[in-house]
Design goal:
With 569 residues, this protein is of the alpha/beta class. The chain has 25 helices and 18 strands. The strands form four sheets. It has a seven-stranded mixed sheet with strand order 12-11-13-14-10-15-18, with helices on both faces. A hairpin with a 2-residue loop joins strand 5 and strand 6. 37% of the residues are buried.
Length: 569
């Protein structure tokens, strides 16, 4: 009897309609993914529905984590037979070995090359069960952390047993009197090395932007910042704090003996086929050094204006401004609002081998081939203003300044724009119109600002609803207040395995774009107030931050709570 196709199985089970299947087939013409993955991304079926249907189609048992079938047998050396890196990259989990037969859980039964390589690597005949991507990832982390000594849970207990744990009263003394040799020795112990590696790897896998390692009186905390929010993870024991910090310092080429002063460093971590940079900062606190690692993963951030979340009209206006050969463009917003990413995306838009592009940054976050990037060092007198003066002697076409912090830097930016250069920079203000009043407040004369300023982009970052679990609802009148929506149904966060039960996955830009046209220039020349500038910009068609956020709510991209949280107040 002929084997049923996956679509036929799903239709027969009542999970999809014929029309939904045909839509997925049509999408497959441009998206070369497996038809089942396309249906999951479309939100038509869930991951476990796909895995169960594939099992039915291929006559492979389906195993979920809840069933308990994804628990590898202990003491069989499975972690050595299939190494962690291979398991994580190919989503394969060894479950049991019986003589020359190895049973594994897999996510993609159509990856014949992986299956063939697995046979050669293990020297075993392979039997399979099928499971969802998220279940396999979670099971891999739990198994290898436990077996090989990981970042937390039982793995940490293994590290505890291999380290000498002093009594609480002697611990503080030992930390202050520890010699450099002992610090290095402890940092180079295998459990500590694996501990730090897995903390970093887990953070990258979870799409974290920052790792916080924080000591307190009787505990150590590890937190990841994901989509702008900090989430606590099960931490190592307190006595492992100093070895962990020392290991991070060694990787970041910092002075591990210096614990009284803040330090900065950088780590390059190789992950599968890409390199991820980590910017490291240490800070002495009353309970020891706190470490923050900023993860700079260019592959995880699409530095393209079209991918950031600007609407079609805003994109059109920004791209038009970027084609002007000279002028001054500011991106403004609070810390953590994605200003640098927007600037990098603008540079990608204007990248041209016929142009000399130079940047002054503190520090350089992403290294871009073809652009001359300079790390300013105010601590040794190399300020933004000094870098800009040097740039003007280097025949630049386009200049990017990480931040305008003072009158001197602002005036050089303005004068560079007036002398035929295109200048991009950032300001810390609440919205676009207030950037104009801020520049005038710090002392930039209106007669210089008027001819140089071309555009201001005010922005925030909002979390996107998880497409796998967001739920539609009809908001109550008291929830909306005076807000007018163009739709009766909007979406809110729910939470599922795909988004680690937060209800959100990824972020988008919520922006307002102020074009400095003739009317705005006349108002600048008359020292107009913030309110007058804002009213004029709105009459000229500027969509405010709040209005832009509401458009994303109506489109089902984010929630009303999220927009109110990032744009109001």
């Amino acid at each position: 009897m002929a084997r049923l196709r996956l679509g036929e199985i799903l239709i027969k089970q009542g999970l999809i309609t014929e029309a939904q299947f045909q839509a997925a087939v049509e999408a497959q013409k441009t998206d070369k993914s497996h038809i089942g993955e396309i249906l999951v991304r479309m939100g038509v079926i869930k991951e476990d529905d796909l895995a169960a249907a594939l099992g039915t189609q291929l006559l492979i048992p389906y195993a979920s984590k809840a069933s308990g079938l994804l628990g590898p047998q202990k003491a069989q050396g499975l972690e050595k037979l299939v190494p962690y890196d291979y398991a994580r990259e190919h989503l394969v989990l060894p479950l049991n070995r019986n003589m020359n037969s190895l049973t594994c859980a897999i996510f993609n039964p159509f990856d014949l090359i992986m299956i063939d390589n697995l046979k050669k690597m293990t020297g075993c005949e392979i039997n399979f069960v099928i499971a969802t991507r998220s279940d396999i990832i979670r099971a891999i982390q739990e198994f290898y952390l436990e077996e090989e000594g990981g970042a937390w849970g039982k793995a940490v207990e293994k590290a505890h047993s291999q380290a000498r744990q002093p009594s609480p009263s002697s611990e503080e003394k030992s930390e202050t009197e520890l010699s450099l040799d002992k610090l290095i020795a402890k940092a180079e112990e295998a459990p500590v090395i694996k501990l730090v590696d897995l903390i970093i790897r887990q953070a990258i896998d979870e799409r974290a932007s920052d790792i916080h390692i924080e000591p307190f009186k009787d505990r150590l905390e590890v937190r990841y910042r994901i989509d702008g929010e900090l989430y606590q993870i099960p931490p190592p024991a307190k006595h492992l704090h100093q070895p962990i910090v020392s290991r991070v310092k060694i990787l970041a080429h910092m002075d591990i003996a210096e614990r009284r002063l803040p330090q900065d460093g950088r780590i390059s971590a190789k992950l599968e086929q890409r390199t991820v940079d980590l910017r490291v900062s240490t800070l002495p606190t009353v309970w020891g050094e706190k470490v923050v690692m900023r993860i700079l993963d260019r592959d995880a951030i699409k530095m393209e204006l079209a991918a950031l979340g600007f609407d079609v009209r805003q994109l059109e206006i920004i791209r038009k401004a970027l084609k002007v050969p000279y002028g001054l463009l500011f991106v403004t917003g609070p810390t953590g609002s994605g200003k640098s990413t927007t600037l990098y995306s603008c540079l990608n838009e204007v990248m041209d081998p016929t142009k000399n592009i130079m940047t002054a940054e503190d520090p350089v976050e992403f290294r871009i081939d073809g652009i001359n990037q300079v790390h300013v060092r105010p601590d040794i007198g190399f300020t933004f203003a000094q870098a800009l003066r040097s740039f003007l002697r280097q025949d630049p076409d386009i200049i990017m300044v990480g931040e305008v912090r003072d009158l001197e830097t602002a005036e050089i930016c303005v004068r560079a724009a007036l002398t035929g250069h295109f200048v991009l920079s950032t300001l810390h203000t609440n919205d676009a119109p207030s950037a104009i009043t801020r520049l005038m407040d710090i002392g930039v004369p209106p007669y210089l600002l008027t001819p140089s300023l071309t555009m201001i982009v005010g922005q925030r970052l909002g979390r996107k609803l998880c497409p796998h679990c967001k739920e539609a609802y009809e908001p109550k009148p008291e929830e909306l207040g005076e807000i007018k929506l163009s739709t009766d149904l909007i979406y809110r966060a729910k939470g599922c395995d795909q988004c680690s039960h937060t209800g959100y996955k990824g972020r988008l830009v919520i922006a307002e774009v102020l074009v400095v046209d003739d009317m705005i220039k006349r108002m600048i020349g008359k020292n107009a107030t913030y309110n007058d500038l804002r009213d004029a910009a709105r009459k000229n068609g500027m969509v405010t931050l709040f209005e832009s956020g509401i458009k994303n709510v109506e489109a089902g991209i984010t929630s009303l709570d999220e927009v109110l949280g990032v744009t109001v107040g």
